[in-house]
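User: Hi! I'm working on a homework problem where we have to compare a predicted structure to a textbook description. Could you give me the structure for the chain below?
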Amino acid sequence: MNLLVPIDANYIHPLRVMLCSLLCNNPEEHFSVYLAHRAMTDSQLSSITAGLDPNRLALYPIQVSDEELIGAPVEKRYPREMYY
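Assistant: Happy to help. Predicted structure tokens:
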């Protein structure tokens, strides 16, 4: 199953909870998770899948340019990534 998740570093923990739930509740399923992000580090990205089954979960980071979103209203609760 393919999933697209827009994310910034503030949502790593909620994403990990979601991924754990997906794996636990769908024991026969394999997931490809595409992460649309602006500026996450390799360390942050690798922390997402730490301890999760690599045979059932593949992570594909996609760095997105936000040039077209300059001037879009953002705040801490609503980061630029929500537009992806």
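For your comparison, note the following. The longest strand covers residues 31-37. Residues 23 and 53 are 8 Å apart (CA to CA). Good luck with the assignment!
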